[in-house]
Amino acid sequence: MSRKIFLSFLGATPYQETRYYLDTDRADLSAPMYYAQEHLLRKHIYLDEIIIFSTTEAERQNYKGRIAKQQQSFPVLPAVGLESVLARLQAEGVIGNYRSEAIPNGYTEAEIWAVFQTVYDQLQPGDEVVFDVTFGFRSLPMLVLVLLNYARNLKNIHVPAIYYGNYEAGRAEKEGWEAQAVGDQDKEQARKRVPEAPILRLDAFVQLQDWTHAAQSFSDGNVLPLAHLAGPQRAELSNSLRVLAETIQTCRGMELAYELDIDQLKVHINELEGQSDVAQQLRPLLSKINAKLAPFHSQQLGNGFAAVEWCIQHNMVQQGITFLQETLQSYLVEKIVGQEFLTNRVYRYAANGALGGYTSPRRTIEEKNRAKLPLSDQDIKECYAAMLAVTRSFKGLSKLYRSLTGEFRNDINHCGFRDEYASPQELKKQLSDIYQAIKALNL
Question: CA-CA distance, 245 to 260, in Å (whole number)?
């Protein structure tokens, strides 16, 4: 069972009494307190473990005791530090176990990496982590964002919230109260008034890292992270993108050409771009999706050629070879006998032979007889002759097709278990060269 844990940093400076709030209307305004952690812990349903990261100095001055500002001196008051607050919360049943974990000061790069490792080592696979960076030293908030993203990938942790208690905002507001006060009594009341500091949620930055990953994945041809982030509120977009990606990845040519409503997907994306409630992170990606989908259209065999370009761009060489070979065969079948026969294996066998430049339909007739299809030899001969004529009308098509389906395809389909095999770069270049040459024929 996964743990629910709270991680927080503690500094060595004298913290001032403050009232904290999370709600913008301040309905949850806390009582005066020195440690933002107390208000956060009271706001959360029971947490299994609390870990406070502190330097040696911070543990002495703010964990075991509390450093206080008294005019020009800073005495450490015993037994009133964060540890005593946590003990009280535990006694009230608000939290479970708690402890302090030592970290270096973080003054050098080596110390920063030591902090990183110390925090990371406290995390267990599947943890639900609430992080507070209110009292984090300088670079620590940035370190936390990087660390949490790292741990989300390696330890599959979940980060429901990152908090930052903005004491400076509360102090600035208090100074405003004092400046606006009129009369000695009002000024004295304003001076004694405890600052009210907002606690900000920074988990949007974690989500931004997810969007960054989704954008990069989409650029690499993987739309699944983006489909996941679009979420249930964009279910139609999410499902359409997922299906499109899987269709190309698994070479579902018939589905890509005639079953997916790609034009409707484009309409939906255009509508989303115009909606005011679309997430800021999603809007730029919608434009990228539209550009990526430009070569695709509903009910069009040419989607197979568009898929070849997609595969070349994203190093999907084997899928690209398959799409190119099967789309060329489909082109001939559709042109000579019609779309309804696209899945007829005898006609596809004939198209393969004609594209290869073989003049005799003998093997196609043999395949027809094995399949026991109600076609005469003459039907096959006439069909084959028509396919061969179309092939020959495009100069060099047969040679290109043989290059595609010969040693090149065999090399990749047999995983390079050959005496002479091509490198990945050579395979990608060969596919690109063949495709560009076929594209130039304007089929």
Answer: 11
